[in-house]
Model the fold of this input.
Amino acid sequence: MQIYVFLGAPGAGKGTAAARIANDADIHHVSTGAMLRDAVKNGTPAGLSAKKYMDKGTLVPDQVLVDMLGELLSTSKKDATIILDGFPRNENQALQLDELAAKHGATVKAAIDIEAPNELLISRLGGRQVCPSCGMGYHVTNMPPKREGVCDKCGTALITRNDDKPETIKKRLEVYAEQTAPLIGLYKKAGKLRTVNGADEADKVAKKIAAIIKG
Ligand code: AMP
Done:
């Protein structure tokens, strides 16, 4: 199993790139945020405990994520290529990921940091719409779907995320800077960091990352 970690602030385009890459190749896109939103929707114990953190824009306790990820890796095919979109988000999760990978015979091949300036992140998150079914991301003005409010890929009605409100956006960006951004240095030290410019157009970002994954 080969794992590619996607780093980058909310709005940098992690989900958009991952959905495009997974669409074109035999690559599994795992978004921990989407898994948590599903758990909330289905009213599972993990979802019930996660909701209050997600609504505030703070991190859900590590153990909830570690359990979810352990379950996922234990049921993934040995030759799978997995994009982790949204995990790890702090140092403890990065350590836990190494342990889980070792346990399940997986390798963290690279951490791909999608960089974008704060003003761009804020404007993207403000108009963001997502497909609750396939995870495809849109923006009301920058990247609209062909038919208003409907996913191009699977025809599902698009939604605006609960946590894409101005106060929560601000909090999520702070949490990223404090807890997740330090992972960039950690993966750099390990010789696994790759950086792409998230201000580029979505297809270009996805192509650059696909090339990194292909090697
Ligand atoms: P995302 O869709 O990646 O922006 O995640 C949405 C929300 O889910 C985040 O603001 C967190 O509250 C929660 N979340 C997602 N991934 C993690 C993680 N690895 N650790 C803790 N909380 C997470």
Notes: Residues 10, 31-33, 36, 53-54, 57, 59-60, 65, 86-87, 89, 93, 163, 172 surround adenosine monophosphate (CB under 6 Å). Residues 38 and 175 are 22 Å apart (CA to CA).
